[in-house]
Amino acid sequence: MKSDGLLIVISGPSGVGKGTVCAKLLAAETKLKLSVSDTTRKPREGEKNGINYSFITKEQFLANMKNDAYLEWAEVYGNFYGTPKAAVEDNITIGRDTLLEIDPQGALLVKEQYPDGIFIFILPPNFETLEHRLRGRNTDTEETIRKRLHLFQEEIKQIPMYDYIVVNDDIEDTVKKVKAILDAEHLRFEHTLVYADLLAEVDKL
Amino acid sequence: MKSDGLLIVISGPSGVGKGTVCAKLLAAETKLKLSVSDTTRKPREGEKNGINYSFITKEQFLANMKNDAYLEWAEVYGNFYGTPKAAVEDNITIGRDTLLEIDPQGALLVKEQYPDGIFIFILPPNFETLEHRLRGRNTDTEETIRKRLHLFQEEIKQIPMYDYIVVNDDIEDTVKKVKAILDAEHLRFEHTLVYADLLAEVDKL
Predict the structure, then answer these.
(1) Residue numbers in A near B181 (CB within 8 A)
(2) CATH entry, B1-32+97-205, from 3.10.580.10, 2.120.10.30, 3.40.50.300, 3.40.50.12780
(3) Which CATH class is domain B36-96?
(4) What pTM did the predictor assign?
(5) Is the pLDDT of residue A46 over 90?
């Protein structure tokens, strides 16, 4: 008998550092598997198919959508992004913990389908820090930064649906906290087979 | 504004090593406070009043019982043991995490009064190990050991009411796991004031 893997959803506003948290977590927790998203956008330099994303055509993506193959999907600036349902399900069924790094809108859709997932919201220490980080990335226009900050104020309202809140002040400390959450969740009564094993042992006495 | 402290209940069968787990946890987590029980038995060598137990007279104990001053109490071989309600409540109210080391029967009574407490059941790796440990203590007669092992088979039925199960195979590993549970619980949405603080910040924007 094997326990199901845990579905761990890491979300938070744009610029909070979700990506770095997940990368460090995956490096430290070898048993954790990242769910690779499908996208229709072109690979950026250094990105590898099947590692960063599965790069597929718009036709493939639309066919997948039609077949209800995505846990959640979004269109951003004309490109599609989606989390393949089957990959997540297969992983969990074979007992592997599965990590989703996802925006709060996507997380909400995943929550509807996996209410027992472990939902972690990464927060900036404060608004100023988030604004500073968004500007520091040098990837967004002033208008986009304004939009992202405004979106964060909306996203905040969804936080009560999350199981855990982690403030990302120091990245190493944040990763340590998320690891503690994973360790603790594995010890939860409903996530362990220890009790079932014990009952079987008692039956034999 | 200050968050309430957490009530952490560590339970498990006699001989599983609850005491050692709690002692090591208290040494490592300076903010954690052990709830000191009242007892009517005489202090053993090395035991200090107010540290190991509050040693009180039978008359005092019975008066406290009458005043509903105990979260739970038990009579063991003619001696009374009780967990003072006020001390636990005061601790929690001032935001201090409070540790109870308690037998499964007592834990059940605490659960009724503090359903939001964090209940951790410490298990032996298997029955044989528990039996071996009970014999190794050299404090119990054969009859008492039999009774304790039989009691454990009854206590097992209550395990589903616990939040976490930790198998005490290696003591350092067990303490590490319980610490992860405490760290994770502090990050739970319902145990943090981060969200309230954030909403206050948004209001000011």
Answers:
(1) 183-184, 187
(2) 3.40.50.300
(3) alpha beta
(4) 0.91
(5) no
Say if CB B14 and CB B106 are below 8 A apart. no
Which one of A127, A153, A165 has the shortest CB-CB distance to B194?
Answer: A165
What tens digit of pLDDT does each residue of B45-77 get?
888 999 889 999 999 999 999 999 999 999 887
Judge contact between B163 and A184, C-beta under 8 A.
no
Tokens at A9, concatenated? 């959803």
ipTM beyond cut 0.85: yes
Where residue A70 falls among pLDDT bands split at 50, 70, 90? very high
* Nearest-by-CA chain B residue for A188: B164
Nearest CA in chain B to A161: B189
Q: How far apart (Å, rounded) are the C-alpha atoms in residues B186 and B165?
A: 18
Question: B163, A199: Cβ pair inside 8 Å?
Answer: no
Spell out the domain ranges in chain A.
1-32+97-205, 36-96
> Pick from B195, B200, B197, B204: which is nearest to A156 by CA?
B195
